[in-house]
Specification:
The complex is a heterodimer of chains A (947) and B (274). Helices cover 9% and strands 36% of the residues of chain A. Chain A is mainly beta and 947 residues long. A twelve-stranded antiparallel β-barrel of chain B has the order 1-2-3-5-6-7-8-9-10-11-12-13. Chain B starts with a helix and ends with a strand. Classes of the chains: A mainly beta (947), B mainly beta (274).
Chain lengths: 947, 274
Amino acid sequence: MLASTGDFLLANDRVMAVVDALEHPHYFAPSGGALIDLVTVEGNRDSLTHIFQATGLLPRDAVRYTEHQFVEEGDIKALVLRGHLDGEPRHRVVTRYEIRPCEPGLRLRTEIYNGTPEPTMWTVSDGLFWGGRSNIPFTPGPGRGYTYPPLDLANVDGLIEETPYVIGTIHGVPGSAYVDVACNLEALQGFNGEKISAMGTPRHVVQPRDYEVFERFIGVVDGASVGPAADLALELRQQIHGEPWTTLSGKLVLAADDGRVDDEVRVTVFVSEGTTQMAEEARTPWTQITPGPDGRFSVRVPAGRPYVVEVRAFGRTVLARDVRVGSTPGDVGTLEVPPAAQLSVSVTLDGAPANAWVFLHPADEQTREAVTARMMEQGVLCAPMLGSQNGESPACNRLIARNGAFLLTVPPGHYDVYAAAGPFRTIAREPVRIQPATSRSVSLALSSLPLRPAGSLAADLHVHGAGSFDASISPSEQLEAILASDLDIAIISDHNVVQDYTALARTRGVQERLRLISGIETTGLILFDYVPGVSFPKVIGHWSFWSLPYVPDAPYRGAPWDQLIEPGTLFTRMYEAGMSEHGLIQLNHPWSVLEVGRDLAFSSAIGLDATRPLTSDYDGTAASLFNRKPEGSRFRNSDYHVQEVMSGTDNARYQAYRAFWFYLLNQGVIRGGTASSDSHGLARNMVGSPRSIVFTRTTVTDFDEEVFNADIRAGHVLGTNGPIIEASLIDGEGKTFRPSVNPFTPGSDARLRLRVTAAPWVPVEEIRIVVDGSVRRVLSAELHHPADPFGKDGLLRYEGELRVSELLPAAGKDAWIVIEAGHPLVPNADLDCNGIPDTGDNNGDGVIDWRDVDRNLDEVIDEKDLDTDGNGKISSADEPARCKTAVGPLQDPRPGTDRNEPRYHFAAVQQIAAASLIRMASGYPTAFTNPFLLDLDGVAGFRGPQQ
Amino acid sequence: MARRGSVLGVLLWGMVAWGEPAGADPCASGVARLATGPLAVTFREGQSGVARRACSATELSVGAEGWAVIDTAHLYGQVRGAARVSGSYALGDATELFGSLEVYRYQTVIASVSGVVGGVGHLSLGGTHRFLTREGLTLGATGRLILPSIMGVYRHAWPVELDAGLTAEQSLGANWRLHAQAGVMASTTISEGPRESWLGLAVTAGAGWQPLPWLAVVADLHASAATYAPIDIIAAGLGLRFGGERLSAELGAFYPVAGRRAPIAFSLNASLRL
């Protein structure tokens, strides 16, 4: 729900809709005037992200509204908005949102007039911004339904298809289903994607002084199933186009008392036009429905066609039946769903029930084969698929056992049930064989371990909930996950909006053991031209800010609008919006790829070259934007406080983030390093992994945010997903120094004292001493390894001292030291020669070169990736010039496949996605300290080694 | 407006001042016939604003034309091609009726999404009447009406346009000719939507040189103004004409030197004089 004071509310006896005020733009829209909330009066469950109007893909193609008018014609009420396309004021636009009594939605009419002398190319569309990990679009079409080709912005023309309607539904959390049906067209045209769909008129060349009209109905119904929304769509199409529909009904019964028949994961019904003899991709899915509590279902389908009624349980087809429907209602009869099993899980921590993460993993290949599935065709593969990966427990193959207990229905099989509760606790595992129509109980006992460094707080500085456009997990479920992960502090960093979880913590009674701080992650969505010399517009990536005042009735809940500005201006706006002067600005995932054509990181967006010195002032080049002070801003773009060095549970881009951090340290740009999960749900980055261990004198019970933030700014932070590094530098005069962004000059005979500990399930295979960006020393043979990964012993992996003089490259020069511990880093190369590693040996030939690049992003390195000139042959002509190649992905350590290997256990409780422990993204044990900045050159202050 | 009028005045005065001896008709048969009149290259809908020769003739033409706008900075491109049939009928030495039909237009617009459109294009009908001939100069009035005949290209609005102006030709010895046209253009649409009308100016001036009996070279400068912008386009054109008294061909192209997204335009026409 995004509505704020000043927005437009349209309501009748059935629905309520909110159109944002013209001065409250959201997401991709340059102005308000877009649909931001839509609910039924009865259900009042808003899961709409944003529906705006546009005629193409570029920011200039979006509609900017400048005027509004209310119209009342008897019972009909309308909001009429006037404006123009953002890139051309002479492309004039009028949109009318109309609501009539008794109708389950809004009638919309958009007219766009070409007032220029040039023909233009338009598809007048609703931009249906689902957000990702939220609503999943469904369209009828051969091989479609919930399936659609990956969104490729370079080839959108090839993705445009015709469809009678589009429906977006959210799964795994309570929500609504939204339907968009064209009224003045036989069919909608557009493309679908997990994050965004665009549906509207066919592509037309619109001549000067000609215009286009798009009329449609946008409706809402309660629930996650497509069925009721498709029923509405077919009724609309009958009224508008005279297409007859009829009903198809049936009844599902469970073969055993093993779950609820109205649970969409346990059982759901897909209805596709075609026959079981046809290939699945040739059938046309029309609807999908989850039965009511009595097992009955009834859906509308176009009359007079053959259909396949397919029943899915846990995401897999368990039976399919042919049925032909004439002009009268059809009935498929009673369908018996094969039995599942019940699993009762209880977890204790130190003997008492406590929140914990619970994971199910197939324990044999047969089970893995039998239970691997996706939720509604989309998202990640789960084994088993127990719930939407975006929703609440169970999500994918894991759950949060609230207060240590959970009862779930599972497909029969042989599983390992794991429990975990953060890096300072043991993990437990129990293998179970679950037969059909049986119940099993599993009890897992966890113990606290003496690993938490004294005087520290465990913080996740980057956590999302349903307030984010790309997350569905409710604040209350995310809070349970935070508790299960044993965090002291969580920064709630929803995209583009402030959220406040403190009342929730009070309700849960955890306000004294956990601090939930309201922050924001600003997220560039509207591309603009700010990078010189680059033909395609950019955004400024993602930035976190905390803490911010939460204003419940204000747009963005108190945050400022964060689009179309450089970082320095953004920083200024945040302070003006009430961020404390002691607040923090964090550069998130600082070297990233594009997502839907949007840069996720400022540093990579401007094309910094880490092989060259950083310019201190703006000189008109793209890279010098880093230090630019935008006009009217109080800050330079580089005036942030900390950067993420580890971000995301999968740790996939650690080598890139760390390389960028090291580059800045070498340039004398000193910023603290942090570690955050960037959690968007239970299966998309696990909250608390990784985390920042903040060494601070404040405590949770007597929390002082100013002190806490000051310690983060000062670099009193250890980033980790398991290993604990306690590092200090002791000189001959007895002075002790700890990692910090504050330089110091040690006395003679300085020694680096290291103590590395970890829970027994966290493999620590090496300790790296990094000096001025290069690994100067690796400790591996000296390390101890625990005998029992499920035990409590063997926490200490290394304790010792190293002479600093033996680590430094040259005497009398300033230097910095960072300590890392965990898994060895896998080799990755810098193929585009910008100083940041980007590509691993992905084809396994022992060499990292252009042949390792996944150019078509299909996660497979094959001949299609090598045919760079697209002539169908692979030859020397395909080899790109040095440094001019596409890059990626980085290679990570692979988790073990032996169920008894320590790496397997670590992966089993860190896994964020995928069906297989081989393919899954599970992270690898890693910890890093902030730097010791050694001021050794006799000149006050620290000078970066490459400064 | 006054300034534009002055420019036209100077142009016409210049043609008179540098003209042939008194009594010569530049439209007389055999006087650098291939060098007669401006290039028939289209910049806007239905040949609106395309300068018309002053000399009348009865002939039939077929041709192809194309234009392109390439604006990579704004990810915009437009390519248009058309087949055209034109004809004219001379009512004596002084008057000519003419018409032209875009038999088929193909047009593609390349933007963030791309598309094509095709269909029968505009039909235009017009006439020219010479009212003054002296000293190698001829001056006439010309007008053209573009009818809302286009099909499959416009969807909800159909333009109707009219242009009218003065056209002049001046022969300069046996091989050289000057030509010019200045006029106004008016346009409106038939539409249920907004009906925007505009008035604009179009000026074309150029020279033709016929060094060989079968070859002429024509250079033109075209400008139009005030339809959508103070200056819509200024373009320089160059063309070659081949052939003889009955059968001839013209290949012409214009390159824009000013104007936002002004097109590169070309045409190829073959004419049979009847």
